[in-house]
UniProtKB/TrEMBL annotation:
The lineage of its organism: Bacteria, Pseudomonadati, Pseudomonadota, Gammaproteobacteria, Moraxellales. PANTHER family: UPF0319 PROTEIN YCCT (PTHR38108:SF1). The keyword Secreted does not apply. This is DUF2057 domain-containing protein. Belongs to the UPF0319 family. Keywords: Signal. Residues 1-20 form the signal peptide. InterPro entries: UPF0319. It holds the Pfam family DUF2057.
């Protein structure tokens, strides 16, 4: 039984001890404002439009931001409300990317798009994992937060009660189910282990952190 516990939980335990990270590519038209309810600055773990995230599930607050130059040399910057994207479990060492789904092609389209942008999360094989549509923000909230800053105070991020439900792909759903099954198997192995077997495993686990 000790061997089964070690074999089944070992990789999971080691990955929990060590810092694990994934790389997320973010285009210019998508601004990251918060990660896991923590406000971030524009340069937080970011280089060349890439940021580092912990492996596993993350909750990312983003907003659409589009710059449009007009023929008379005037310009407009259109910004959406915050869209909260809950990722599936991200695999350590893999690359992911955010992108606009059905992005606007001109200023008129962008004026409508900013009210309800759609953000997609893709894996390194360009497979869509989840898409999240934003909720149309109230005028009073927009006027209070749409400043020149690319960041928001945590108190300015509105609740996403009216945000549409995320759409996960079947591939993501199956991966989540497999992860849940694996976790349940590990729990059952621990529950059925004797006191001596649990002590032996904890001794082994302590050795891995040295």
């Amino acid at each position: 039984m000790v061997f089964k516990i070690v074999a089944g939980i070992g990789a999971f335990a080691i990955s929990s001890i060590a810092f694990s990270a994934v790389t997320l590519s973010v285009p210019e038209e998508i601004k990251i404002v918060a990660i896991n309810d923590q406000e971030i600055g524009t340069n937080f773990l970011r280089s060349n439009n890439k940021i580092k995230l912990n492996a596993g599930t993350n909750v990312i607050g983003v907003r659409y931001s589009g710059y449009y130059q007009h023929p008379d040399n005037s310009h407009d910057i259109l910004k959406s409300g915050v869209v909260t994207v809950k990722t599936p479990a991200l695999t350590d060492g893999n690359n992911y990317s955010l992108a606009l789904i059905n992005p606007p092609q001109d200023f008129d389209q962008a004026e409508k798009y900013k009210d309800e942008p759609i953000i997609g999360l893709y894996d390194q094989n360009k497979q869509l994992l989840v898409q999240q549509a934003g909720a149309k923000a109230s005028k009073s909230w927009l006027s209070s937060v749409f400043s020149d800053s690319d960041t928001l105070d945590a108190t300015q991020i509105p609740p996403q009660a009216h945000q549409p439900a995320p759409i996960y792909t079947s591939q993501t759903t199956q991966a989540t189910l497999n992860s849940n099954v694996s976790t349940q198997t590990l729990i059952q192995s621990w529950q059925h282990a004797t006191k001596q077997e649990r002590q032996a495993f904890m001794t082994w686990l302590a050795e891995q952190s040295n």
